[in-house]
Amino acid sequence: MSSDPGPEGAPGLQASASDLELRLIDYAMTLDHADLSDRAVHQARRRIVDTMAGALAAYTAAPSKIARKLAVPVADGPSARVFGSLVATTPEMAAFANGTMVRFLDINDTYRAKDGSHPSDNLGHCQNPAEIVGRMAAIL
To answer: Helices in the chain by DSSP H: which ranges?
Structure first.
């Protein structure tokens, strides 16, 4: 590991990240929309819309209500929002509440993979770092 302060927007990350993690962070932070094919952009948008529709449909479900109740508002430090609300909570609790809503109905099945993974397994929390470094609007 080097003594760099970390990728732009993530100072101090060097101290705890492996070389592979740093390479992935660098790739993600420098990737430009223009680098992606039209098909890749279309498929990414399709997954995001699919995931958000499932999450918002689950917004009033009992598990989602419980998860949102645990995601108490914070005034200081890094924060991220819970889908469907303007509540800013800790990034960890936003990921928990958002992930609960995303996977509760499990109706977002437009994607098939050999390994059984699903992009929505990541979308509940991947917006948090983007929001923290102020890149959410650019991503969406």
So the answer is: 19-30, 38-57, 62-70, 91-104, 120-132, 136-139
Residues present in the chain in total: 140
Q: Structure pTM? A: 0.68
Q: Say how far apart CA 129 and CA 105 lie, in whole Å.
A: 25
3-state secondary structure (DSSP) of residue 88: strand
For CA atoms 16, 27, 102, 78, the dihedral sign is positive
Measure the CA–CA gap between 68 and 94, rounded to whole angstroms.
8
- Six token digits for residue 108: 């977002």
Contact 47, 113 (CB under 8 A): no
Ramachandran assignment for 22, one of left (phi > 0), alpha (psi -120 to 50 degrees), beta (any other) = alpha
Residues 6+ apart with CB under 8 A from 104: 54, 58, 61, 63, 64
Averaged pLDDT, 20-37: 89
